[in-house]
Amino acid sequence: MAGVYQSLGRYEEAEGLYQQALVSDLKTYGEDHPNVATSRNNLAGVYQSLGRYEEAAVLLQHALASGIKTYGNDHPRVAATRNNLAINYYDQGQYQKSEEQILLALKIWEKILGKEHPDTKKALRSLIAIQEKLSSTKR
């Protein structure tokens, strides 16, 4: 239901449900379980939409650490979290950090999915946008 609320732009309602899911998952599975990382990613997406970037970043950093611990550095879920973190940093104007994360995500997706996969192509477009922003801020 939270995903439906989020897609409808009813972020406060989605936030409450995602928070409940995170609390439940933490209680049921513990800190480093993939379900907890997913719940953190979902809640971070709502915070991102609400402009609560720092709160979203904290959740994404926890989800990333959990994903790396569970799957290793070269897993598509880790790439997806890195991509989300890149978006978060970009929205905060932290373009260097954004570039670092998207490069890591791109490397994973190229290795696992190939250069022609939609996720890989999307990450490449994001990288170009980030690099354009970086070069315009250096002028």
Protein architecture, described:
- This protein is mainly alpha-helical and 139 residues long.
- The chain folds into two domains: 71 residues, Serine Threonine Protein Phosphatase 5, Tetratricopeptide repeat (Alpha Horseshoe), CATH 1.25.40.10; 67 residues, Serine Threonine Protein Phosphatase 5, Tetratricopeptide repeat (Alpha Horseshoe).
- It contains seven helices and no strands.
- The longest helix has 20 residues.
- The protein is globular.
- The mean pLDDT is 95.
Question: Top keywords for this entry?
Answer:
Serine Threonine Protein Phosphatase 5, Tetratricopeptide repeat, mainly alpha, 7 helices, 139 residues
Helix run count: 7
Query: Biggest β-sheet: count, sense, barrel?
Result: none
Please tell me how large the radius of gyration is: 15 Å
Provide the structure class.
mainly alpha
CATH topology-level name of the largest domain: Serine Threonine Protein Phosphatase 5, Tetratricopeptide repeat
The overall pLDDT average reads 95
